[in-house]
User: What shape does this take?
Amino acid sequence: MTKEQILAAIMDIGIVPVVRTATAEGAIKAIEAIYRGGIRAAEITMTVPGAVRALEKVADQFGGKIVLGAGTVLDPETARVCMLAGAEFFVTPSLRISTIEMVQRYSKVICPGALTPTEVLTAWEAGADVVKVFPCGNLGGPKYIKALRGPFPHIEMIPTGGVNLETAGEFLKAGACAVAVGGELVDAKTIKDGHFDVIEERARQYLAAIAKARAEMKPAA
Assistant: This one.
């Protein structure tokens, strides 16, 4: 996929599941459940033991059927390793210019983490494709996205933190191009208990919430 296609796919799907699990096997099974539930994107965080191996297996298993990302990428070296493992978009918890430059060099999608207006603008000017606003829930959730979009209507934002079934639609209405959701979709207990059908159903519910919000956002004919 080209960079433009990757970005368009993420925005079209509207949700990026953040898969942060105790094992690589758990991450792979969670993504299988997410896929069965209809979501065609997923991010495996580098905090997962064997995360790079999990990226490789998911990339081999799904090929171009899923937009695969690497999360909690702290430096450009990690970004490059994940890229070679099959990741097509890269998410960081904080702003590091060298990581943005690395991902841009290979024409992939970079979503650096930022929180303050200064960080958001700095990330965008450094070449971010989308700015991950994190931890968004701690600063007012959708209201904070709306406040940022006032001076920065040209900057695409994906909120992380505070996103759940109740707030996902509100974030989109506030101006987010998509949302990222972690433990509310993929949680440790559900994986430990092997209830992957629960994750599958949650995926369907999130897609329904996003579709509902987008329908409500359309101007009346």
Observations:
- The longest strand covers residues 15-19.
